[in-house]
Q: What sequence folds into this?
């Protein structure tokens, strides 16, 4: 009998991929399915980025690259951070990653072990908790509250830190809620972190360029007093509609950079070379497609929030970032996951149940509005028919 190490019994996953598979299966059976489940832009990668990748292959960039990424790309990341935030980050601290996710994988591996506590947002991206449990560390859920616009509360987050806390995970703009934590709250949080000098901070800023209603993303890089223990997770997946390219970047504190580089050398060696050339084109080329995509998401956001608030038993606060809405469905009488799966099977609308994002996700659905306005309207109409007629199972 094979004996896989015990920690694999504790590793989780993302239900979004299972729902996508089920939705595709139903479509194969001839059913009409509208997908509001998966978290990826429904736009194509802008053509100049695709062309740069093709050119790099024609130019012969077929070999290994440095494990931390090619220098021109690391320099382009530094320049981009400077352009967007006015902050200096040395290219020596930038590491190109195979997607944003691997940064959280590495950071949690670096700080998670039995006896350690890691604080993470709940509802939040499911891989945080999955990886914390995998390492044997204790996951400490930081409740993101609807009445707080699903933003972090500095006071509550700080109250969860103990002498055992090794890592604090922050995510704004947030998946699955669209919550954006305002600067004043982050100022307070960082001030409070001075009392916890041994706590590393992982700030997942992958949706940093997607905010609405005048809300501005506040990067944690803006606080020099925590830079020696701050890990930034960012990348191209969402901003440039490049989820399938597997391209992201981390900014590591000097102290952790070597550890991250060694993890890369021990696992994936380096990032696909042509994807890195595409990454340069994305950062240094025209940004109008980013602005156009965010504008389109904003239009759909308004449509989806207005529509959800008209559904029987449903209320939805306006998300301030990312491309998700997180409606409260507790008054429909349905448990969230049962509602999500029955909506998929009977009404042909794929959503995710809030509990896929943590214990505090009960009573909510996650709606990804990365779909056309026409499909969103159709989905809302199907949900309305369903909730008006279908008895609670
Ligand atoms: N962080 C958050 C909050 C996300 O929602 C996602 C993707 O859905 C990621 C990280 C991972 O991004 P990538 O596809 O670049 O690995």
A:
């Amino acid at each position: 009998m094979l004996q896989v190490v015990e920690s694999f019994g504790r590793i989780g996953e993302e239900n979004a991929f299972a729902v996508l598979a089920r939705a595709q299966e139903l479509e194969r059976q001839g059913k009409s399915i509208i997908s509001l489940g998966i978290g990826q832009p429904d736009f194509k990668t802008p053509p100049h980025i695709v062309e740069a990748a093709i050119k790099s292959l024609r130019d012969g960039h077929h070999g290994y690259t440095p494990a931390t990424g090619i220098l021109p790309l690391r320099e382009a990341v530094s320049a981009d951070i400077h352009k967007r935030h006015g902050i200096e980050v040395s290219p020596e601290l930038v590491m190109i990653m195979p997607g944003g996710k691997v940064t959280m994988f590495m950071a949690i591996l670096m700080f998670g072990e039995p006896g350690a506590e890691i604080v993470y947002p709940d509802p939040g991206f499911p891989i945080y908790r999955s990886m914390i449990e995998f390492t044997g560390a204790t996951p400490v859920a930081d409740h993101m509250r609807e009445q707080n616009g699903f933003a972090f509360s500095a006071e509550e987050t700080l109250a969860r830190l103990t002498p055992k806390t090794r890592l604090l995970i922050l995510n704004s703009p947030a998946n699955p809620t669209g919550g954006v934590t305002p600067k004043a709250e982050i100022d307070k949080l960082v001030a409070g972190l001075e009392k916890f000098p041994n706590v590393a901070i992982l700030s997942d800023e992958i949706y940093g360029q997607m905010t609405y209603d005048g809300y501005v993303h506040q990067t944690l890089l803006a606080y020099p007093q925590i830079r020696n223990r701050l890990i930034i997770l960012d990348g191209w997946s969402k901003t440039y509609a490049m989820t399938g390219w597997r391209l992201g970047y981390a900014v590591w504190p000097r102290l952790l950079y070597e550890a991250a580089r060694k993890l890369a050398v021990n696992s994936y060696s380096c990032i696909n070379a042509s994807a890195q050339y595409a990454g340069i084109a994305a950062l240094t080329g025209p940004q109008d497609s980013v602005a156009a995509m965010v504008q389109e998401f904003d239009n759909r956001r308004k449509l989806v929030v207005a529509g959800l608030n008209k559904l029987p038993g449903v209320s939805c606060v306006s998300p301030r970032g990312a491309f998700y809405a997180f409606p409260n469905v507790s008054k429909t009488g349905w448990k969230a996951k049962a509602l999500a799966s029955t909506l998929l099977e009977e009404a042909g609308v794929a959503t995710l149940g809030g509990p896929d994002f943590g214990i505090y996700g009960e009573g909510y659905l996650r709606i990804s509005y990365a779909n056309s306005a026409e499909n969103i309207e159709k989905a809302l109409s199907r949900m309305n028919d369903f909730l008006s007629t279908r008895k609670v199972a």
Q: What stands out?
A: The pocket of pyridoxal-5'-phosphate is lined by residues 39, 99-101, 125, 171, 175, 204, 206, 235, 237, 243, 248 (CB under 6 Å). The first helix runs from residue 15 to 28. The domain at 61-284 is CATH 3.40.640.10 (Aspartate Aminotransferase; domain 2). The chain has a mean pLDDT of 97.
